[in-house]
Amino acid sequence: MTWHVQVLSLFPEMFPGPLGHSLAGRALENDLWSLQTHQIRDYALNKHRNVDDTPAGGGPGMVMRADVLGLAIDEVLRKRPETVSKGQNNWPENWPVVYLSPRGKRFDQAMAKKFASCDGITLICGRFEGIDERILEAREIQEVSLGDFVLSGGEVAALTLMDAVVRLLPGVIGEPETLEEESFETGLLEYPHYTRPQVWEDREIPEVLLSGHHGKIREWRREQAEKLTQERRPDLWNRFVNKKGLDKPD
């Protein structure tokens, strides 16, 4: 089954970008996922192809127009693959429309898994000061944020979201077991990794990893994951502790 992505952008030439290479690129070639890009200016309503206007109430910058985006979204959703859209009312439940926005819900691994289970997704890449609030309300658009920072536009954020989802699709990763031990899968950050040479700049691989004792190795990796999470992401550690019903360390 193919996972489908539609991207609305003023710079569609930015796609697939890095996702045209490596695992994601091979998966795209093998139809494990598909990509449609759409130029928002193609849906402009005047000869100058304006997609933005001054903010109501005054202020700096420009705001993307609801009438232009509304027309674009409606038309793009009609262009979903027939195998997905024909005879099905699967929007927005199984085909979310997402606007990449700093004020959105924080993107995480759980959300990536949820998107991967859908038939596809439509991503809106904003520019300027943002988009008219009315389009968000009228089209049931989800706002998603990558973090507490601001980018020049939504394209880089969209690529990041797509990468996080594509690698979860069946057949993309050669060894699915690899996904099970990654950061955030268990609620913890991932443990440290080592490989040859055994000694590098007087630094040795931890002895337990060379012992061949799989039980001790699992225990060491678990301890390291817990230690790293406590030190670097106390928010994740507290969530993990509360979920597991563990006692917090003194």
How would you portray this structure in words?
This protein is of the alpha/beta class and 250 residues long. It has two domains: 3-166, Alpha/beta knot; 181-244, Trp Operon Repressor, Chain A (Orthogonal Bundle), CATH 1.10.1270. The chain is built from nine helices and nine strands. The chain has helices spanning 22-29, 66-78, 82-85, 109-116, 133-138, 155-166, 177-180, 214-232, 234-244, and strands at 3-9, 33-39, 52-53, 63-64, 97-106, 120-124, 142-145, 199-200, 203-204. The strands form three sheets. Strands 2-1-6-5-7 form a five-stranded parallel β-sheet, with helices on both faces. A two-stranded antiparallel ribbon has the order 3-4. It is elongated and about 70 Å long. The chain starts with a strand and ends in a 6-residue tail after the last helix. The mean pLDDT is 92.
Features:
Trp Operon Repressor, Chain A, Alpha/beta knot, five-stranded parallel β-sheet, 2 domains, 250 residues, alpha/beta, two-stranded antiparallel ribbon, 16% strand
List the helices and strands and how they pair.
Layout: E1 3-9, H1 22-29, E2 33-39, E3 52-53, E4 63-64, H2 66-78, H3 82-85, E5 97-106, H4 109-116, E6 120-124, H5 133-138, E7 142-145, H6 155-166, H7 177-180, E8 199-200, E9 203-204, H8 214-232, H9 234-244
Parallel strand pairs: 1-2, 1-6, 5-6, 5-7
Antiparallel strand pairs: 3-4, 8-9
Helix pairs in contact: 4-6, 8-9
